[in-house]
Structures are given as C-alpha cells and as structure tokens.
C-alpha cells in the first residue's frame, strides 16, 4: 500500500524511490543484505568531508598554539588526561603544599577552581565550553568550609588509593567508602569534580568512572586490557564499550567514517545487516543519552583515526540535544569538556526536511508536545545551533511544523529500508549538515 | 577508621574478618588482584550444588513426561522455540485454514488462546507460570472483533516477511510498518503476543525482539552469527548480549557456576579484577530489570552447561523481584515462561542477614520507604517466596527491620572487598539459599 503524503514544494525524487522500494520489498524483489554498494564514486562525499575536517583540525591546532603563546588572552582551565603516576605525583604535590601551609601556621586550605555557570564560557574556536580562571579558597579554619575541606582531604586520600592500586571504581562505590562523612552522594560527587579541577585532570584520570552503556560494532580493532578486540567479529550483539578508555590501545581501522546512532533498535538493524561490511564504517551507540564512557570512546576513535562522524538521531529536539552533548559537552562537567567533546559531528538524519523528501506518511509523524516545543525554541537560542545556519533552519522548520519523527518511522517502507536505501542514498549524496 | 556497628547476637566472625581486611587494605598490605584462591576444597559446595540441581532437573523431566502421557491432567499452553521454517509452516497452516473457512462460507476467524490473569497458573513442579487452555474466537464478521482480526492478519503477514527474509526487528519497528492500522504500539504488541500463542512459539521465534541491555564476561565461548566469541578475552567492558539467541551456537565453558549480578557497578568490579580467572565462572548482568535478551541468554547457558546460578542483588524487595523475573517469568508473558524462565537461582547476597554478619555499618544501610515496605509485604504472599522458607525468613527480616542495602555498601570495607573477601567467603561456605 502506497503511503499518502503531503504535497510539498520539496524535491520529490527520493520519495518516489521510497515508494518503488517499498513495492519491490513487498513483492519480494529485494534480496536482503546483498544489495552491493557499487560505483567508485559512492564514497566521494565522505572522503571530501574527511579532508575538510582535517584542514579545520589543523586550523584549530594553530589557534591553540597561538593562544598559549599569547599571554594577554584570558586564562582558561583545561584539564588533561593523566596516567596513574602523574595523578599520584600531583596528589602528593597538593598534600605537600597543604602540609607546608599547616607547618607554617597558615592552616589547611585548598585553592579550588570555581565550576559555577558564571565561570564558564563557550569558546567558538575550540567549539566547546571551558572554565574561566576563577578560584575559591577552601579553608579548614572557616566554619563555612570546614566540611567541604574535610571531604576534599578524604577524597584525595581515596583517589590516591585507587591510583596506587591501579583499579577503577564508580562514584557510588566511592560514596559508600565513607557514608558517615559524605552523607549524600551528591557531596562526594561534587568534591570529586573539584579534585579533578585541582589536579588538572579529567574525572576518569582519577579512576572514578561512570557505568557503561554503549556498544560498538564495525571496522575497528583495538587492544582492551591486553585482549585483542576485532569489532567486525562481535556477532550481532556488538562489543560493550568499557567505562574507561585508558585500557584501550592500538586502535586500527579501515573505516571511511563513524556512524553514531541514537537508539539501539537502529543499531540492531545495522549490526544484523552487517552494514559496516557493505559501507566500511564503525557503528557506535550509547542507547539514548550519551554516557561518559561512550563519549570518551568516540573521542578516542576520532582523535586517532581522523574519521568523519555522521549522526543518526530522531527528528526531535532531544535527538539534537544528544548530538550537542557529544559535540560540546554538558554544562555540569565543563572543566572536562576538552576531553569529552568530539566537535564536528555531522547531522545525517532523521532531519525535519527528510520527512517530506522521503515521503514519510503523516501517520508516522508525531505531534510535538508543549514540552518538546519549549525545548526546541530554547535550543534555537543556543550557541551551538546558532553558529550552524543549516541546523538552525532545520530546527526552525521542526518547531514551525510542530512535527517530530523517530528513526523507526523509516520502517514504514520496509524493515530494511534504513540500511538498503536511506543510509546509502544519504552517504552517496553527502546529505549531511 | 573502623566502622561502628550494631551489636547483635549473630555470628561475629565475618565482621571481624571484614574489619581486619579493611585495616590491611588501608595500610596497603593487600595486594590487588593477586589473592589466590587456594585449597582444593574451595569449590566443594558449588560442586555439591551442581549435583543437587542435576538430580532435581531429572525429577522435573520425569514429571513433564508423566504429564504428557496423562490425558486427564489439565491442558496447558506452552510455546516452543521454533526456527524460521517451522514458524513459516505454522503461519501457512493458520492462513490456509482461515482461507478454507472463508470458502466454506463461515467467514474469517482465528482461535486465539486467552492470556488474561484468569487463564494463568503457577505450576509448582515446573516452577513457573503457565497458561491454561482457555481460548477466544476472534471473528472478522463481528463489530467487536473486526479491528483485532484485521490487525492479526496484518501481523501474520509481517511476521511471514521477517521469517522469509530471516531478519529480526523490534516491536517499535513492527508498529511503524503500519501505523494507520495499528494506531497505538500497544495494539500491535498485544496482537504479537496473541500470534505467538496461536503459532505455539516464543515471541523471539517470530523474529520480533526486544532491545539488548545485558553484558557477559568470563569463562564461556560461543559462536555468534558465525563469529567466535571468547568471553575471557573481552577486555574489561565485556561482550554485549544480543537481543536474540538463535544466532548463538556451540556454547562451551569450563566454569563452575554462573554469577548473576544485578548492577553494572558490581559487574565492572568483577570484570576489572578478572574474578572469573580466580574462581572459574561466567558473569552476567542485565543492568537492573532483566530484559528478554539476557533472560534467554541465561537460560541457554543453564540448559546447555548445567551450571548452578548464584544471584548477587541489592538487599531490597526489588533485588528479589529481579531474581523472581529470571526464575519464574513475568505475568505479561506467561505463555512464554518455559522459554524465558531459569528456575533454581540461588540467592547468594546481599541478604538481610548479611548486614549484621558482615558488620555493614548503619550509615551504609538505608531506611525502606513506605513503597519498599508495601512491595516487600506483598512479596511475602507470593508463591515463589512462600515455597522457599529461607527466602521467606530473609524477606520477613528485611520488612521487620525496615532496612535495605545496596551491593555497593560493601565498598565501605574497601574497593575490592567484594571480589577479595565477600564472594570467596560466600562461595567457600556455600552461603546461598
């Protein structure tokens, strides 16, 4: 049955193709999984994108170098990934200077970078949020800060133990090591972020990690804690991305790009069809909101393999939000943004303009709720949307039409439409923004 | 600092051991990951349990055989796992008989097993919920059932397409293939369960699967869609369990038991410490509420490897609920219980009596909310708790004390207390119920 669709002024070519494919699929003329991706020119647009990204990357590096040699520019706090020995050395430096201060009669205190919103800024050239140079003094002799100072000292000791033993733990476990002192997990979590800023390292460098959620499949191999992992041989379920990437080494790949997928249903389709063998790519998903483990992993892939990243998300404000979290980091951990953010992700789909171009029937589109609309309107004002006119146009259209759609809406044309038609079309035409 | 603890009349030996271990850990005397699991006798209790389970399994088989030869016993609907060709044959049989009925002037109708609560029962000998033999006639000529009958016909056609192409899809994708007809996903989901009952197969046999959530690590290898997966070489992140197990073949293992873990934080600790190399086991988690994929996988492991399963969950009513879902299935899919349920899981910990035995300080225990207490009290009345007096005692104690605790509470004694002391102690003493 051919889906009825809205008449619009946009390009009707693809929706005709969709219709034909649906008919072919229903009559059994499409043989599953074998549609070869032909022609030499198929990957031209992806390769162009790769060159473009490389030259932008070089420009950014020049900007960073210039900044660091330019003493007049605003100081910023950017933390680095440190190994256990480096963290231990920094911890010992902090404690030594605290001990010295006590011996000299000035008492125990720590100088902690402020992480409040007023001390944050979005840096256009770096494409991410960073901390400015505001600092707070946390003093043991003050009634207002005695508790925080005590908690800080305890957390420093616990992190020292983790790094000495070279093991990882979760924030929850850390909290339970001294509930009497911490009282609430928010308190130990909060101080943990302070400690990362104080040491000048990422939270993961402190060996306190979030739980894992992401999975990966496709054309990449690496060593994980000594085990060789070949992600083309991970069956249909894929490999669970570990919560910490410091055990991952020797990443190699012959992929042309990374396909970042919002939802596991789409991931499952791609994995079962072994899409990565037809179009050489690496497929990553965090199953919804990106967790720290997946963000770190994506960033490692990008930094070591220099591949373009194409995002496949729902056509709703949350899909965009998810891309933005991967790209510029969340505000809560802005000090860590350099190490978690992966700038330059292209929005492949599902985009509001796709709904008409691919002739997605009205029944598969959903009305946006009041809340969706509010989120969409707020996002139109955000820096990361404003600086990308094409994204701004798409989001404006979404808010104007008050329509959203899930990746699954493509199933209207058949179960394998996503892997057999939609993605190959998109990639061939370089249809990302 | 030694945690203050409640004075109780219970065995203080272990809590003293806990305290000593904590002191040793804090003074650096415990070397991480190397504590060898000595003595030949260490696994005696696990091996005893294995023999016990095997003999019970044999008794159950005898019961099933006797039932099927005993015509007077109540008829029950139990679906089987079928492969694509078998499902296709059944689908064609159903449609053929429908066509015949139309040609004979009796119109289109389907005989669908009832899945309502009144048609369910818990079978003690089988240790799971099953469907009784109530049947409903779904008639196209009746105004009340015309819509359901139409949806049913469409779902039969879609499942036929999936099985012909030998691909899997999610319930959400299935819904989107015909939103105009289905209107709500609940309607297509509901009919899908009916189709499974009608065909006499599991929902997964229809190639419509839930999304994946679980991970596995440890001493097991298998083929997944042709790829050899060795779960001892899956780094620290583990292998994602696929949403369908029909692509998994050739399971082999030298493990002594399966450790089923509620939470990913505990899983992470076990994986990083490579606990499975010190005590040969397979470690599985669904990260909270078990999904169908993980339940199917666990059942496959149990059925093919005949290993005891030890459950490590939070000491609260939800921890127990999770064990019960693995063991006897959820009510919504009772027709499928035989293929999803893994009876005979032992409750290793954290148990209410552990809180005192291991001297878990009061600060690490949490007060149960009104809701927790209600859930706990309701569970005391349920069959699966009542038939196991030891579980009933523990749950009664929990409700009486109004105290719960998470697995992470063990971190109070040190980050690796779980793998270095708690689990080895439990296993050595056969301390499960």
From TrEMBL, chains A, B:
Residue span of region Disordered: 1-34
Protein name (database record): DNA topoisomerase (ATP-hydrolyzing)
Spo11/DNA topoisomerase VI subunit A N-terminal domain location: 147-208
Active site: 176
Entry keywords, A to Z: Coiled coil, DNA-binding, Isomerase, Magnesium, Metal-binding, Nucleotide-binding, Nucleus, Topoisomerase
GO cellular component: nuclear chromosome
Compartments in which it is found: Nucleus
Organism: Cyanidioschyzon merolae (strain NIES-3377 / 10D)
Catalytic activity: ATP-dependent breakage, passage and rejoining of double-stranded DNA
Coiled coil: 39-66
Family: Belongs to the TOP6A family.
């Amino acid at each position: 049955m051919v889906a009825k669709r809205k008449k619009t002024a946009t390009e009707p070519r693809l929706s005709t193709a969709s219709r034909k494919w649906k008919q072919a699929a229903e009559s059994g003329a499409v043989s599953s999984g074998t549609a070869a991706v032909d022609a030499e020119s198929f990957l031209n647009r992806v390769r162009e994108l790769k060159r473009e990204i490389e030259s932008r990357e070089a420009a950014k590096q020049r900007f960073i170098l210039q900044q660091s040699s330019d003493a007049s520019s605003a100081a910023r706090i950017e933390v680095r990934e440190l190994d256990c020995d480096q963290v231990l050395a920094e911890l010992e430096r902090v404690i030594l200077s605290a001990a010295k201060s006590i011996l000299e009669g000035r008492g125990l205190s720590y100088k902690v970078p402020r992480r409040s919103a007023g001390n944050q800024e979005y840096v256009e050239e770096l494409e991410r949020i960073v901390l400015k140079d505001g600092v707070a003094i946390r003093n043991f002799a003050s009634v207002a800060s005695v508790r925080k100072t005590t908690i800080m000292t305890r957390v420093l000791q616990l992190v020292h133990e983790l790094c000495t033993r070279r093991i990882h733990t979760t924030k929850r476990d850390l909290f339970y090591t001294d509930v009497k002192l911490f009282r609430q997990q928010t308190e130990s979590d909060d101080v943990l972020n302070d400690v990362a800023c104080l040491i000048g390292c990422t939270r993961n460098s402190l060996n306190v990690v979030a739980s894992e959620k992401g999975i990966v499949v496709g054309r990449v191999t690496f060593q994980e804690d000594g085990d060789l992992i070949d992600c083309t041989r991970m069956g249909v379920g894929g490999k669970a991305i570990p919560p910490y990437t410091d055990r991952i080494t020797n990443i190699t790949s012959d992929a042309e790009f990374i396909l970042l997928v919002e939802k596991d249903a789409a991931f499952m389709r791609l994995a079962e069809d072994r899409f990565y063998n037809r179009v050489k790519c690496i497929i990553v998903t965090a199953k919804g909101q990106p967790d720290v483990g997946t963000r770190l992993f994506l960033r490692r892939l990008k930094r070591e393999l220099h591949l373009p990243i194409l995002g496949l998300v729902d056509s709703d404000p949350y899909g965009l939000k998810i891309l933005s979290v991967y790209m510029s980091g969340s505000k809560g951990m802005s000090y860590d943004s350099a190490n978690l953010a992966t700038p330059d992700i292209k929005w492949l789909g599902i985009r509001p303009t796709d709904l008409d171009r691919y002739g997605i029937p009205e029944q598969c589109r959903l009305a946006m709720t009041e809340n969706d609309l509010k989120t969409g309107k707020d996002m139109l004002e955000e820096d990361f949307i404003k600086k990308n006119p094409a994204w701004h146009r798409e989001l404006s259209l979404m808010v104007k039409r008050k329509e959203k759609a899930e990746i699954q809406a493509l199933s209207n044309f058949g179960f394998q439409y996503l892997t057999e038609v939609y993605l190959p079309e998109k990639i061939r035409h370089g249809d990302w923004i």
